[in-house]
Amino acid sequence: MKIVTILGARPQFIKAAVVSRALREQGGLTEVLVHTGQHYDENMSDVFFRELGIPAPDHHLGVGSAGHAAQTGRMLIALDELLPRLAPQWVLIYGDTNSTLAGALAAAKLHIPVAHVEAGLRSFNRRMPEEINRVVADHVSDLLFAPTDVAVENLRREGIFGARVRRVGDVMYDTARLFAAEARQRPLLSSLGVAEKSYIAATIHRAENTDDPTRLAAIFTALGRVARDIPVVLPLHPRTRHALQRHGLAPQSGNLRLIDPLGYLDMVALQCGARLIVTDSGGVQKEAYFHRVPCLTLRGETEWTELVEHGFNRLVDPRTAAEVEAAIAESLQSKPNWSTGESLYGDGTAAQTIAADLARR
After folding, report:
1. Which of 10, 154, 196, 278 has the greatest number of CB atoms lying within 10 Å of its CB?
2. Which residue(s) pair with 34 in the sheet?
3. Residue 86 confidence (pLDDT)
4. Could you tell me how far CA 47 lies from the centroid of its own chain?
5. Where does the pLDDT of residue 305 fall: very low under 50, low under 70, confident under 90, or very high at 90 and above?
6. Nearest-CA neighbor of 302 among 321, 320, 289?
7. Which residues on adjacent β-strands are paired with residue 167?
């Protein structure tokens, strides 16, 4: 049976690392990898394939950067030409990016069954591009692999249930378990001149923050103030770098360390060693939990609600620098009870469950 996997962004490479491995080990399955090119430079794409042992893409669409409509449209045109030639039995998509949306729509219109990994997540904020992508992808998918009980319930409320939905656990947890020990051996912290549990790790890339100069200024002003007392290390997403330049924002604190994007292993090393993680990423919220590091999310809502409910994650809407700074100070004092959430994301075998389910079907 042939499965075409469509991916194109950094979070999808992390998820595909374990699922592609499980598909190869399952037997009777042939995977064809299609890279849309949504993330395309060395630090955002190539390094993940090398470090995580993902096979080189069989097809690269080379779409590159563009606005949401243009980028998704280019992917649709290319996939509409490619998928009939490949003639797969399934198209496999991940998460909530423009690559997810394009893969789901292209396959559905060609009457090719769609399987969605990380289905059922909802922030209930339709202003987020990711929310639109995940809702549409779920409603055109034939098989929905949900990571949590909350995700299954979200789908049920939208009329998606029964044999179409499987609660399998989170494939990012599988990846974290597989690579954590190797990541902890990386010399990243010594190269940055920071000691374990003596710094904050931060990531900022969501459009709702980078495209709003008021929110972006509030975030970086707060991080600069906090960095006077504790170093802040922030791998800078290309979107965020361009936004800072576009809005004329130049963080001043010497202890606010803006560095180039990191590969998966170095990013895990940075997360594991941090005293606190400050982020607006969906995936990083979970990785903070996997590595038992308190997290502050700079958004008004999250799709990973169970992390907030159990006290592993806090939310702050970054409207002012004072609010963000106060939330960071409070989060630095938090001491979550990690034992209360042992089974939130499965047992680390989500990828094998997905591969076996596809093989049965």
Report:
1. 278
2. 6, 59
3. 98
4. 16
5. very high
6. 289
7. 146
Q: Are 261 and 236 in contact (CB under 8 A)?
A: yes
Helix (H, G, I), strand (E, B) or coil at 333: coil
For residue 233, list its beta bridge partners: 201, 257
Burial class of residue 177 (count of CB atoms within 10 Å of its CB; 0-12, 13-18, 19+):
middle
| Cα(159)–Cα(156) distance, integer angstroms | 5
Q: How many CB atoms lie within 10 A of CB 91?
A: 27
Task: Provide CB contacts within 8 A for 231, sequence distance 6+.
Answer: 194, 198, 199, 200, 255, 256, 257
Domains annotated for the chain, with CATH where assigned, are: 2-170+346-360 (3.40.50.2000), 179-341 (3.40.50.2000)
Q: Which range is least confidently modeled, 61-65, 120-124, 259-263, 355-359?
A: 61-65
Q: Which residues pair with 235 in a beta bridge?
A: 259
Scan for tokens 């490479």, then name that residue: 13
Whether residue 200 contacts residue 274, with contact meaning beta carbons closer than 8 Å, is answered with: yes
Q: What is the DSSP letter of 304?
A: -
pLDDT, residue 280, reads 97
User: What is the distance between the alpha carbons of residues 287 and 293, in angstroms, rounded to a whole number?
Assistant: 8
Could you report the per-residue pLDDT of 14-46, keeping only the tens digit for each? Answer: 999 999 999 999 989 999 999 998 765 555 568
CA 185 to chain centre: 23
Q: Report DSSP state, residue 26.
A: H
Q: Which residues are catalytic?
A: 205
For the chain, how far is it from start to end, CA to CA, in angstroms? 10
Whole-Å CA distances, 243 to 64, 217, 220, 238, 253: 18, 10, 12, 9, 18
Alpha-carbon distance of 289 to 341, in angstroms, equals: 9
Whether residue 11 contacts residue 304, with contact meaning beta carbons closer than 8 Å, is answered with: no
Q: Quick check: 292 and 199 in contact, CB under 8 A?
A: no
**Residue 245, helix vs strand vs coil:** helix
Strands (DSSP E) found in the chain: 2-7, 30-35, 59-60, 90-94, 114-117, 143-146, 165-167, 200-203, 232-235, 256-259, 276-279, 295-297, 313-315
For residue 227, the one-letter residue type is A
Q: What is the token pair recorded at 159?
A: 């009329």
